[in-house]
Write a structure and sequence with these properties.
This protein has about 110 residues and is mainly alpha-helical. The protein is about 40% helix and about 5% strand. Strand 3 and strand 4 form a beta hairpin. The longest helix is centred in the first third of the chain and has 10 residues. It is globular, with a radius of gyration of 13 Å. It binds a DNA duplex (13 and 13 nucleotides) through helix 2, helix 3 and strand 2.
Length: about 110
Amino acid sequence: MSNEQSFFEQVYEVVKVIPYGRITTYGAIARCLGASGSSRMVGWAMNGSHVLSPPIPAHRVVNRKGVLTGKHHFGSPDAMQQLLESEGIAVKDDCVQDFDRFFWDPAKELHL
DNA sequence: ACTTTGACTATAA
DNA sequence: GTTATAGCCAAAG
């Protein structure tokens, strides 16, 4: 079996394991994959997340400031915020409130 | 094989 | 406090 998953697939795996009501950052995911600094690649990987089956909870991934930077990539610009609020995460002005409280670090929770 | 990009992050002005 | 720029790296064109 080939475990040669591309960087994108590795990102998908991490995002898929994000627990309900939790969020993480692009840098944290990249860092968890040993590619700290490739935070942009994480976001770009999400660019193809909508073609996955099933799609990954990209709405749980925000930038380092807790800002919904990629909300425009969803079906609707408010879809991301609606999803986060639906999970109990307060979002105000495209920014996650208590971001540090909902932050989920894959490098710590994940046993890689 | 080269250029451009991109849902980031950090620092400088 | 806000805006600009640089550094970063892998995939798509």
